[in-house]
Prior knowledge:
By secondary structure, the protein is mostly helical. 58% of the residues lie in helices and 0% in strands.
Amino acid sequence: MEKQSRTTRFCLICNYVSRIIEPITSRCAKFRFKPLAQDVLSDRLKLISKKENIVLSDEVIQALIDTSEGDLRRAITYLQSASSLHQDKTHITQSDIFEISGIVPKETIDEVLKTCQSDSYEKLDMIIKVSLKTLFEISICCQQCLSGR
């Protein structure tokens, strides 16, 4: 890197700086970006869906915004994955987005919280086992409970 620094510039883009080896990070300037605002995400997703002839309802756009947490790349990836599920690109639903993103359905979260409040270990154990069978990660479920999503 030092030998070519007069003629060459590198731009590394990553989600986790800690995963880049120290000899490289020590030679780089680091820039951190905040999550994008909801209106910016919404406008961009509407533009993309219009250009790609994908029909999106407002609730699907909101699901993309909520699950991507301000990361436009992630929202676009979810949109692309959801549109590939449907040949006609007109039946993308909120549940498609939640399934692709790995979000546990709100009904399941509500059930877990209600069971926790009931002081019944047996019921909680049963819900956890059912969640494992439906492939929901318990850690994601707990994160969603704590964040209120």
